[in-house]
Amino acid sequence: MSVYLDNAATTRPCEPAVSAVFQCMVEDYGNPSSLHKLGLNAEQRVEDARKAIAAALVCDPQCITFTSGATECNNTAVFGAAQNYGKRKKKIVVSAIEHPSVAEPIKYLEEKSGFEVVRIKPSRNGEISEEDFMSAVDEDTFFASCMLVNNETGSIQPVRKVFSYIKRNFPECITHCDAVQGFMKIPIRSADLFADIIVVSGHKVHAVKGVGAMFVKKGIRIPPMLMGGGQERGKRSGTESVPLISGFGAAVRALMPTMSVAHENAEKITAYLLKKLSRLDYVTVNSIAENRSPYITNFSVEGIRSEIMLHFLETQNVYVSSGSACSKGAHSSVLTALGIPDRLADSAIRVSIGRTTTMGEIDALINAVQEGYGKLAKK
């Protein structure tokens, strides 16, 4: 039996998503820009998916733009905001624990274009201080970015409080939220976040890889990164990947009604996991935020490097991550920002449960960790 506990990296596509993808490949395979029936059918598939994503975010479907994934969305948001709103104002305020697809574009603007960047560090529990963030924003700030749920520790950030303050006091500042790890896991209403831009991803919510979506509030002008045929109302040129987009919409429609039930189950599974981990005196739990997602737990097995434990667990058919899967095993900037000592950061394991995770699978994980520690720890 395989125990898959790396759902923050990617999820297994659900049957409705797979079915939608297949149907679009063998039946509704037309180009959505074509005017004939097959083209119109494909266009309808895209619009149906747009409505599904919009319903989940409680927004106008016309505010949703499909892309190749969250990385493209975040790059478009950062560079587009800089192009349109960063000519007179030169300051960016961002949390220090952002996903690389946000952090790296901002670093590029800082190093190559001379923008001032203020990075708000979190406390040891993984939450940024809303007071620190709000006090850093001023009249020269054109862009503020804060993720909703951290992808390594699961900590939920005070996006609503921070962004509502910014919009009251500095309404021209563009607010951006990477909501990838929160979408379809915790309720998200676009208006409640006070975010001008919200980014979500398909393959994190049981759709397929290669598709993401970006909410852009009406009136916010973010120029496209890709120009050409003017698809997606001129916001993202290139023929839409109808199968992937349709699969994304199908997954959201299928899973949205049971989101609260899934969340309750995730809380029970994580409570069980934490109880089991607390009995291992060589394990330190790094996910200690009071306000956090139950889907992600980060812990360290002292004395054993992450990749060594990860590969041992793999021999036991238990699959976890050593951090952000998008960083290919690089040293965790998130854990460093939290002030976690190198000896613990270097041995950190991220467990990210899914909708179907069972307590029996948690038992299998704990047993494998115990066996791994017994074999790998230095005597």
Could you describe the 3D structure shown?
With 379 residues, this protein is α/β, with parallel strands linked by helices. It is built from 13 helices and 12 strands. The protein folds into 2 domains: 3-11 and 259-376, Alpha-Beta Complex (Aspartate Aminotransferase, domain 1), CATH 3.90.1150.10; 15-256, 3-Layer(aba) Sandwich (Aspartate Aminotransferase, domain 2). Helix 6 links the parallel strand 5 and strand 6 (174-178).
Outline of this structure?
This protein has 379 residues and is of the alpha/beta class. The protein has helices spanning 15-26, 37-57, 70-85, 100-113, 130-136, 159-169, 190-193, 242-255, 259-277, 306-315, 333-337, 342-345, 359-376, and strands spanning 3-4, 64-67, 91-95, 116-120, 141-145, 174-178, 197-201, 212-216, 283-285, 296-301, 318-319, 348-352. The chain has 2 domains: 3-11 and 259-376, Aspartate Aminotransferase, domain 1; 15-256, Aspartate Aminotransferase, domain 2, CATH 3.40.640.
